[in-house]
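pipeline stage [seq->struct] | target=GTP cyclohydrolase 1 | organism=Paenisporosarcina antarctica | residues=189
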Amino acid sequence: MSTVNLQKIEEAVKMILEAVGEDPQREGLIETPKRVAKMYAEMFSGLNEDPKEYFKTVFHEEHEELVLVKDIPFHSMCEHHLVPFYGKAHIAYIPRGGVVTGLSKLARAVETTARRPQLQERITSTIADSIMEMLKPYGVYVVIEAEHMCMTMRGIKKPGAKTVTAVARGIYEQDHVKRSEILSFIQMK
């Protein structure tokens, strides 16, 4: 398991500041490399965690109908530009054999998966696949909507544009009626 090398990040940040023409020794910047290193350690803490771990503890309840946790906020870091993206995740599954997980475990899986240099598409599929592997439900449907700062702050500069990704596993892969049901619940206020 790798750990974050704070000293190496600090050195890299000093080099970036110098490369853009700044003086890393001036008052406002002198602690910046240390702050950035600590921030990256926090923001990338999911690199050393496996979202499947949250689904090792299960409960048994005679419920084989929809479970949906929606509007789970998250922040992540675009692996292409190392700038943030943020949004909401919606996770639905239909338990099989009465095997359910704690609702907070779904939010924890989102948090762990997002705290890495990431792509939104990968967050979506990682969460769905982790639930399928560990809980073995009838199906999983994960929808994520996010705003990417790499499209807002730079490049095309389109603030407010949202990216939506969805992954269907199990019965949701074929059943568009059940997917539509989830989407209607997600849109409910």
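stage status: PASS
auto-comment: The helical segments are 6-19, 32-43, 103-114, 120-135, 149-152, 176-187. The chain has a mean pLDDT of 96.
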